Amino acid sequence: MSLGFYPKLAMDGIRKNRRMYVPYLLTCAGMAAMFYILAFLCDSPAMQSLPGAVSLGIMLRLGTGVIAVFACIFLFYTNSFLMRRRKKEFGLYNILGMSKRNLARVLFWETLISAALSLAAGLAVGVAFSKLAELVLVRLALGDIGYSLSVSPASLVFTAAVFGVIFLLILLNSLRQVRFSGALALLQSEQAGERPPKGNALLGLAGLALLGGAYYIAVTIDDPLSALTWFFLAVLMVIVATYVIMISGSVVFCRFLQSRKSYYYKPNHFVSTASMRFRMKRNGAGLASICVLATMVLVMLSSTTSLYFGTESALLERYPRGINVTVRPRTDMGALGTETVAAVRGKILDTAESFGAKPANILDYRAATVYAQLDGGDITTFSAENSVSFTAGCVVVFTDLDDYNAMTGEGETLGPDEVLAYMSRWGGVPSELRINGERTLRVKREAADFAKDGDSAASIIPTMTVVVSDLDEFIESFPLFRNYVGVWSWHYGFDTGLDAAGDRALFSVLVSGLRDDAEAAGISTNTTCRSTNRADFYTLYGGFLFLGITLSVVFVFAAVLIIYYKQISEGYEDEKRFGIMQKVGMMKREIRKSINSQLLTVFFLPLGLAVCHLAFAFPMIRKLLMLFNLTNSGIFLATTGISLAVFAVFYTLVYKITSNAYYNIVSGAKRE
Amino acid sequence: MSILEASGLQKIYFSRFGASRVEALKSVTFSVEEGEYVAIMGESGSGKTTLLNILAALDRPTGGVVLLDGRDLSTVKESQAAAFRRSNLGFVFQEFNLLDTFSIEDNIYLPLVLAGKNHRDMQGLLMPIAARLGIVEILKKYPYEVSGGQKQRAAVARAMITSPRLILADEPTGALDSRSTDELLRLFTEVNRLGQTILMVTHSVKAASSAGRVLFIRDGEVFHQLYRGTDTDEQFYQKISDTLTLLATGGGKQ
Fold this sequence. Notes:
The complex is a heterodimer of chains A (672) and B (254). Chain A starts with a helix and ends in a 6-residue tail after the last helix. Chain A contains 21 helices and 10 strands. Chain A has helices at residues 5-16, 18-43, 45-48, 53-95, 100-140, 153-179, 183-188, 201-220, 224-259, 261-264, 267-309, 311-318, 338-354, 401-408, 455-458, 471-477, 480-483, 500-521, 530-584, 588-627, 633-666; strands at 323-329, 360-375, 378-381, 393-400, 418-423, 432-435, 439-446, 463-468, 486-495, 523-529. Helices cover 69% and strands 11% of the residues of chain A. In chain A, a hairpin with a 3-residue loop joins strand 6 and strand 7 (439-446). Chain A has 672 residues and is of the alpha+beta class. In chain B, the strands form 2 sheets. In chain B, strands 6-7-8-3-9-10 form a 6-stranded mixed beta sheet, with helices on both faces. In chain B, strands 2-1-4-5 form a 4-stranded antiparallel beta sheet, with helices on one face. Chain B has helices spanning 48-55, 78-88, 104-114, 119-133, 148-160, 178-193, 205-208, 233-248; strands at residues 2-14, 21-33, 37-41, 63-68, 71-72, 89-93, 166-170, 197-202, 213-218, 221-227. The two termini of chain B are 27 Å apart. Chain B is of the alpha/beta class and 254 residues long. The chains are: A alpha+beta (672), B alpha/beta (254). Chain A binds chain B through residues 193-196, 261-262, 265-267, 270, 274-275, 277-278, 577, 580-590, and chain B through 56, 58, 79, 81-83, 85-87, 89, 91, 93, 97-103, 106, 109-111, 113-114, 116-119, 122, 142, 144-145, 158.
C-alpha cells in the first residue's frame, strides 16, 4: 500500500462522490484562480505604470477582499451539500467500528486532498491567466505592455494562505458536525422526516412591503446625490426582501393555491403545487441567492460596460475643449479686472501659437460664483451663518450678457432684473429667482448651454448659470459679495487642432508659463488638458470594467454551482417519489411533464425576479452614472439589454445541462 | 367468470451481457374469480414480486398470457399502461408508498385527480371509504404524523377509491405491528365480503390465513393450493403452516 490507510479512504470517498465533489473542487479552484489574478495585478509593474494606478490598486484590493469573503461563505455553503451526503457514509464507518477520532482523520485527509488539488489547479490556472488578465486590464486602460509572463511568489503565498484558512474553517465545521451526532443520526441524516412547510404569511407580506418600499425609493428619487445616499439602503432592502419572499412568500402562495380546490385538484396542478411547496422551502434560500447573484452580475456588467464605453463622452463632458484655463483672484473677494484677463489671454494665445496650434471653438467668459441652497426659485447663498444642506446644494454662476451674446451669436437684450438661466446636469429652470429673499430676478427664458467648461461636470452638485445684463454692475449693486462668499473667475478654453502629443506638450509649457506670471498678477490659474486626462479616465473606467467582469465571473460561477447542487440534491430526493407515482398510476410522460414545469418555474423564477429588480434599479443606477458624467442613457440601456441577453442565454444553457444531470438520477427509478 | 387469468407465465432475466440467465418464473398458471380473496405464498426469491409486477402491467412476461376481464395485458400499450392501472387496479404496498408531500386526504385523491374527476365527486367518494377504514380524523394530517397502521389504511383507501376490478397487495402487513396487522386483515376480509376482489402476495402465514384461497409458489411454479372451505382462521392457519413445512422440508414435486 503506497498510500496510508486514511489518505486512501479519503481518496476513495472523493472518487465515489465525484458527482458532488468535482463541481466543489472546480469552484474552489476557480475562486483561488480569481483571487490570485487580482492579487497579482495589485503588485504588477505594468499596472503600477498606469496613470491613476493608486486608485486602481485600491479598487483591485477591494476586489480581492470581496472574493475572499465571498469564497468563504460560498465554499461553506457548497460544503454543506457534500457533508449531507457524506454523513451516511461516516455513520456506516462509525457503526463498523471507526471511532470519531478515526473519522476526523479521514475528514482531515479529505480536506487536505481537496485543498491541495483545488489550490494547485487554481494557482496553475491563475498563473496561466494572470498575463491575459494583465493584458486585458492594461489594454482597457489604453496602456502599453510587454508580453513576458511573470509569476508573483508573494501573491501565490498570499492566495494559498487565504484559502488555507478557509479550508481550515471548513474542516473545523465538518468535524463539529461529525463530533456532535451519533452513528444512527449520521446514517439517517438524509431521510429525516419532513413536516409540511407552513410559511409565514406575515413574513411574506413584510417581504413584499420591503420590496415595494425599495422599488418606491428607486423609482421616485430624482437627483443623483440622494440616489447615492439611498442606493445602499435600497440594495439591502431588496436583498432581504428577496430572501423573505422566496423562503416564506412562495410557500404561502402555494398554500393559497392549494386552498383553491377547483384549481388544485386538477391533474396538471395537483402534484406540482404540492411538491413546489416543499421544494420552495428547501430551495428558497438557494433561489434567493441565485436571484441576488444574478441581479448583482447584471447591475455590475451593465453599469461598468456602459461606463467604459461612455468614457469618451464622459471625457468630453468633463473636458469639453482640448485646453481649458480658469483664472481666479488670489483672495476670495478680489475682483478680476479686464486688463489682467487680457494679459493672461495674450500669454495663452502666444504659447499656443508657438506650438503651431490654431485655437478654435473658443470659450471666453467672466463669472462670479456663489454656493447656495436651491429650493424651487429660492436661492439661499452659503455663508458662515447658514450652512447648506448637501443634497439641495447648488453652484450658482453669474455671467455677463456680452460674453453670452459673443459666444452664442445671439443678440439678446435684458431689462433691469431680467436674466437668462439654465441648469446643468439635472433640475429645471424656475421662472423667478429670489435671492436670499432680498431681490427677485425674472427669468426671461432658458439660456443656451454656453459656459460649458467641464467644472460643472466635475462637481457632484448641479450648477445654475445665470446671465445678467451687466455683471460688474450687478455684483456692485447687489450686496451679494459683500455679505456672502463669492468668487470671481475667468474661463478660457479652446481646441488646439494638434494631436494628443502636441496637446500634452503645449499643456506642460502653458502650465508652467502661467504659474510663473500668476503670483505677480495676484491670480491663481488652473489649467486642464483633455489629452493628459484621457489616460486617467481610461485607467479608472477600465479598472471598473475589469473588476466588474472579474466579480461577475465569480458570481456566475457561484450561481451555476448553486443551481447544480440544487438539481442534484433534488434529484436524489425525487427519485423515490418518481417511483411511487408511477406505481399509483401516473404515466411517465405525465411525471416528466410535471417535473419539467416545476424545474422551469423554480429555475426561471430567480431570473424573472432579477429582471424585475434590474428594471426598478435602472432609473436609480442611471442617476448614479450621472455622477460619473455618463449622461448618455442610451449606452446604459443598450449595455443592460446586452448583459441581460447574454446572461439569459448562459442561464438557459446551464439549465439544460443541470436538468440532464437531474433526469439521469431520477430515471434510475424507472427500472423498479 | 374469472377476473384474472394467468396461463403459462414465464419470466427470464438476463445479466447485462447475457452471460447468465435467471428464471424467475417458469410456468405459472392460475385464475382468480370475481369476489375472491386470494393469497399467494412463497419464500423470498420464489418469484412472488415478479409475478405481481407482471399482473400489474409494470413488467412484461417473457412468455405466457395474463387476461384481466378477458383482456390480454400484452395488448395494453406501454403509454396506456399507467392509465390502465389507474382505472382497473388498486395497489397496497409493504412500504405504503404514500407521497410525503401530500396530506393523507390528497394521497387518497391522487388516482382520482389523475383521472380528471372534479373535487365535489371526489369528496363524495372519499367519505364512505374513510369512515369504513376509520381514517376520517387523520385525513388532514401528513404521512409523517400518523402510525404505520394508519398509513396502510390510507393506502388501502387510495387503492379502493377508484372502485378497481382488482386490488393487488404486496406484503401489506410486512411493515406493521401485530395489532395493525390484525386490523388490516379484518378490513381486507370485510371489504372482500362486500364484493371486492383481492390478490395478496405474502409470506406471512397469518396474512394468508385470512384469505379464501392460498396459492403456493416454489421455484417459479404454482406448487400447491389450499381452499379455506368452512375452516376458521385458526384451522386454516394450521393447514397453511403444515403445507409450508412440507414445502420447506422438500416434499416431492407434483
